[in-house]
Amino acid sequence: MDPKHQRRELNDGRFIPVLGFGTYAPEEVPKSEALEATKFAIGAGFRHIDCAYVYQNEEQVGQAIRSKIADGTVKREDIFYTSKLWATFLRPELVRPALEKSLKDLQLDYVDLYIIHFPMAMKPGEDPLPKDENGKVIFDTVDLCSTWEAMEKCKDAGLAKSIGVSNFNHKQLEKILNKPGLKHKPVCNQVECHPYLNQSKLLDFCKSKDIVLVAYSALGSHRDPKWVDQSLPVLLDDPLLGAIAKKHKQTPAVIALRYQLQRRVVVLAKSYNKKRIKENMQVFDFELTPEDMKAIDGLNRNLRYCDFLLGVGHPEYPFSEEY
């Protein structure tokens, strides 16, 4: 880890900042808030911005990045921008047009990282969640290896500097890694990961393959009722995290983020609240003790907030595997 920039080296020789700013917000949040929050986050020191086509706010996030370049806060090369290929574009011929659409919305020439958002293909088209008359999602069947080849071409064309995956289990990663003629390994697997779902087996697997694990919902999820069961416990209310936070004079959120950094996980912090955005940057100001780490490890209960039940029944539904 380079302490000056707090970055991790990826298996393609590029570097990813270990702390990222997540930009997802539920539909009812005005898109203009993504613009303001992203500008504020860059001003506060975030250099890694995580977004996706399906968040439908890339235009605003791109605007925020460009305005911070224009005012001299950062140069383009200081920013590490991630976008994601949505499930309705997994057919190989749709991959590059999907990335080009994101680039057009962002008004950027390239993304630093482009990842397959989910391994489950859905019916192509403009609707991000295509459903039949009974309200069931319409699946598509696509060979993930052919999707990956199209991703490799995007990297070779310079449209994405690095390529990776998200929400893949270890068998799906192996499928890509063992693909005949593999040109570029996935640099990362972005998955839900927090003290209640610490993904230790998947993390060990990824480390063994030189793939960086990137943690989303690291603070226990946005709790959007459309996706998340409201009866699940609130991670940041956990008494153990509270006690460790008190001891270090930090917030439970910062403890949850620091926990990931000390496991060599790249972590995304999602907040549109200015006070919390600034607090989350304090993750570099202290260290958890080995006892703290062990205690937080003990919180694991394999609790998944974002289980994407709409995808159950798809042959590539990733979460039926243990890891």
Q: How would you sum up this structure, described in words?
A:
The chain is α/β, with parallel strands linked by helices. The chain has a single domain (7-318), classed as Alpha-Beta Barrel (TIM Barrel), CATH 3.20.20.100. It has ten helices and ten strands. The chain has helices at residues 32-44, 58-70, 92-106, 144-156, 170-177, 200-208, 239-248, 252-262, 274-280, 290-297, and strands at 7-9, 15-17, 19-22, 48-50, 80-85, 111-116, 160-166, 188-192, 212-216, 266-270. The strands form two sheets. The protein has an eight-stranded parallel beta barrel, surrounded by four helices. Strands 1-2 form a two-stranded antiparallel ribbon. Strand 8, helix 6 and strand 9 form a beta-alpha-beta unit. Helix 7 (239-248) packs across helix 8 (252-262).
Key features of this structure:
323 residues, alpha/beta, TIM Barrel, 8-stranded parallel β-barrel, two-stranded antiparallel ribbon, 10 helices, 10 strands
In short:
By secondary structure, the protein is an alpha/beta fold.
List the helices and strands and how they pair.
Layout: E1 7-9, E2 15-17, E3 19-22, H1 32-44, E4 48-50, H2 58-70, E5 80-85, H3 92-106, E6 111-116, H4 144-156, E7 160-166, H5 170-177, E8 188-192, H6 200-208, E9 212-216, H7 239-248, H8 252-262, E10 266-270, H9 274-280, H10 290-297
Parallel strand pairs: 3-4, 3-10, 4-5, 5-6, 6-7, 7-8, 8-9, 9-10
Antiparallel strand pairs: 1-2
Helix pairs in contact: 1-2, 2-3, 3-4, 7-8
